[in-house]
Specification:
Length: about 550
């Protein structure tokens, strides 16, 4: 095998990277789409229905289809999502035995699904997946099929994605393992810029010609470098804190959230240019070899999903604001429009992936799932082809559809929206910011009743979030039991709103120590202490939840 040294060193790397990325595959005649565009919403909605009506029988595919479904609908009770959870838990149990042929993929999508639903509730399973990746990393740093010595760029991408997800959810990690994976990826880049399917580390250093290179692996390799760099905080602290501070106090007042991995990351130093250099080199190759849709669907949907992931992390690495309608997105949307089945709503064209898996990848691409995970994406698309803008004060429910008409004068209209089937698709923060509880005692009491029912029994996570936040700002002792109940809500934001609301109403701003990511024991302890406090205020009260 002939060995080469990577030509040149990156000069003014970020500037060059920006120029290459910005000019890639630009097409001035493309229609501009965003994830909130009615056309995209309709495509996603039809794809979701296809997944529900045409379930896969492959366990790994079931998990990623469940993940795509939950990213859109946020409905844990859905039968498809329940099947995905069941399979993910099985995969966790299987990690205690020998690694199987596709374990890296199956474990990665399981991590993504369980973290998306509740990293707290599934902490034991997620810890098993973490241990699996620790134990199955190959000596050279990459990940691959258990029977092969060589590393696999595709499997390494999913392993790094799983590790990044665990990092974002506060699991204690060994970042030397992340660095080892990145070093392997850098070593196996092809001399011309892309990455191979299976990478061989050159014996004498430098870069060598690799076999089976192509666009899908080129994007997978570069995305892996950027994702791993984000786990190491090479691009700075990119974790977006969308959570509110203590209810009733200025937004600048935030509750301190401990990062358990701060000291661990300090043991690993990776200069930004070590990761950006190979990516910029790949971009030159990509510019010279643009992938065009011409009926060749070799791993098309896999590549589309990888493209969205890579481009989203490019924005992070370059410190750019999120672009809702980039040229690459519009190009692939145009292709997906042509390929979506008019009859079934799925993507059934053969592309080395089954129709359910192709459809899941297409949905994850269309909603910009990675951009959402990074906290920079657009809000969830509305059910039935409607969506909200930044100002939802004009939103009304008319004939079961959300429209903009007249400004809401009270919480009443907001409650109608929250009690509708499309509540998860609302801009909950804007609704809560603009809602004002009435001063009339009768009206106020009636609306508090409705909010308490929503926070206790709504299937919509968004409705429970808004209700918990408004109840917390009511400054009314009567809502305390409902907020105590909400401390055990499966949605982390509902728990945070309930906790902060209790602190505000009680004027105990330190609360009873419930952290942002509590264990079940910490939740029960906080609920017990808040009940004890409430009984000092209302000694005769009986907590029905405990009966």
């Amino acid at each position: 095998m002939t060995h080469f040294v990577r030509p040149g060193k990156p000069v003014r790397l970020l500037a060059a990277f920006a120029v290459v990325c910005g000019g890639l595959i630009a097409a001035p005649d493309l229609q501009a789409y965003t994830p909130d565009d009615p056309k995209i919403v309709q495509m996603v909605d039809r794809g979701i229905k296809f997944l529900e009506q045409n379930p896969s029988n492959n366990p790994g595919e079931i998990v990623i289809c469940a993940y795509a479904h939950f990213k859109v609908e946020h409905d844990e009770s859905n039968a498809l999502v329940q099947r995905g959870i069941k399979e993910a838990k099985k995969f966790a149990e299987e990690t205690t035995r020998k690694a199987e042929h596709k374990s890296h993929y199956e474990c990665a999508v399981s991590v993504m699904l369980l973290c998306e639903i509740s990293a707290t509730r599934y902490r034991n399973e997620l810890a098993m997946f973490k241990r699996f990746y620790d134990e199955n990393q190959k000596p050279h740093g990459g990940y691959g099929y258990p029977e092969d010595r060589e590393g696999d760029v595709s499997q390494t991408q999913y392993a790094i994605l799983a590790i990044w997800t665990l990092d974002r959810h506060g699991f204690k990690l060994d970042y030397n393992r992340v660095k080892a994976a990145l070093d392997w990826l850098i070593a196996v880049q092809d001399i011309n810029g892309p990455w191979p399917y299976h990478g061989k580390v050159p014996v004498n250093g430098g870069l060598a010609r690799q076999e089976k290179t192509g666009m899908s692996m080129a994007l997978a390799g570069a995305a892996s470098l950027l994702i791993g760099g984000d786990a190491l905080r090479v691009w700075g602290d990119t974790v977006v804190d969308d959570e509110p501070g203590i209810v009733g106090l200025p937004k600048a007042v935030k509750i301190y959230k401990e990062d358990v991995n701060v000291e661990r990351r300090k043991t690993v130093k990776v200069p930004p240019q070590r990761l950006l250099g190979p990516c910029e080199y790949m971009e030159r190759w990509r510019q010279q070899n643009p992938e065009k849709f011409s009926g060749n669907l070799y791993w098309y949907f896999y590549t589309a999903y990888t493209t969205e992931r890579y481009e989203s992390f490019v924005e992070i690495a370059k410190g750019l604001p999120a672009n809702k309608s980039p040229a690459w997105y519009n190009r692939i949307v145009g292709e997906l429009i042509k390929m979506q089945s008019a009859e079934s709503g799925g993507w059934e064209i053969k592309a080395h992936t089954s129709p359910p898996l192709s459809t899941a990848f297409a949905i994850l691409f269309l909603i910009r799932s990675t951009q959402k995970a990074l906290g920079t994406g657009a809000s969830a698309s509305a059910i039935g082809g409607y969506q909200f803008g930044d100002d939802v004060s004009n939103a009304e429910l008319v004939g079961g559809q959300v429209i903009t008409k007249a400004p809401a004068q009270s919480v009443t209209q907001m409650l109608e929206l929250l009690e509708s089937d499309g509540a998860d698709d609302l801009d909950g923060k804007a609704l809560a910011d603009r809602a004002v509880l009435p001063t009339n005692p009768v009206e106020r009491s009636a609306q508090l009743d409705r909010l308490e029912r929503l926070v206790r029994g709504s299937r919509s996570w968004q409705a429970r979030r808004v209700s918990a936040r408004l109840l917390g700002t009511s400054d009314d002792l009567r809502v305390v039991p409902a907020l105590i109940y909400a401390l055990s809500d499966p949605d982390h934001a509902v728990r945070a709103y309930a906790r902060d609301g209790l602190r505000f109403i009680s004027r105990k701003f330190e609360g009873f120590g419930m952290p942002d990511k509590p264990t079940n024991a910490e939740i029960r302890q906080a609920q017990r202490k808040w009940r004890q406090w409430y009984l000092t205020m209302k000694p005769g009260y009986v907590f029905i939840d405990e009966i």
